[in-house]
Specification:
This protein is α/β, with parallel strands linked by helices. It has one domain (4-185): Purple Acid Phosphatase, chain A, domain 2. Helix content is 24%, strand content 21%. The chain has five helices and nine strands; from the N terminus they run βααβαβαββββββα. The strands form two sheets. A five-stranded mixed beta sheet has the order 4-3-2-1-9. The protein has a four-stranded mixed beta sheet with strand order 5-6-7-8, with no helix packed on it. The mean pLDDT is 95.
């Protein structure tokens, strides 16, 4: 079975992100190589990767070279740095601003876990009161996590520069102290 992964904010080719996000790399070349290595260490050719934006900030031919080296079937949620990625649309299964994913999961209500994918964090989202998850990026770990909300930042700066599998996301979500807001009214 192919695995589903989530990630965000690689900023391939973006020299200044090293300084802005205090990344532990000496150069953009070192950063790009390490990000590619960590991506491919978890993701195989047929896995599904939902990238929640800010893929890179570089020339389109450089982005093509990077994309050609990455494993997986990549679905891109647009962030605010997608020029080079959008210049290479053939490498993505699709490119969208927002997506509602439904993952088969016997532990979820009705056997499917709904996940709202957007580059930006939201305080509420469709069916959040029913336990729908929300994954986002953009904040590079600078937005405090809400332990009572079924949402969090999947950006690489928050997860040792690795993508997260669906099972890893599920584990994090189930550790949160979330309760349905209307459970006492049922």
């Amino acid at each position: 079975m192919n695995t589903i992964y989530f990630t965000s904010d690689h900023h391939f080719g973006h020299t200044n992100i090293i300084k802005f996000s205090d990344r532990p790399f000496e150069s953009v070349e070192e950063m790009d190589e390490e990000l590619i290595k960590r991506w491919n260490s978890k993701i195989s050719k047929n896995d599904h990767v939902y990238h929640l934006g800010d893929f890179g900030l570089c020339k389109s031919h450089r982005m093509k070279d990077i994309l050609d080296r990455l494993n997986g079937k990549i679905y891109l949620i647009r962030g605010n740095h997608e020029g080079a990625a959008q210049a290479n649309p053939q490498r993505f299964e699709w490119i969208k601003d927002y997506f509602e994913l439904s993952v088969p999961d016997a532990d979820a209500p009705n056997g499917r876990q709904k996940i709202i994918l957007l580059h930006y964090a939201m305080r509420v989202w469709r069916s959040s009161f029913r336990g729908t998850w929300h994954l986002y990026g953009h904040s590079h770990g600078n937005l405090p996590d809400d332990p009572t909300s079924r949402s969090f930042d999947v950006g690489v700066d928050c997860h040792d520069f690795y993508p997260l599998s669906y099972e890893e996301v599920k584990h994090i979500m189930l550790q949160k102290n979330w309760t349905p807001p209307f459970k006492d009214r049922e």
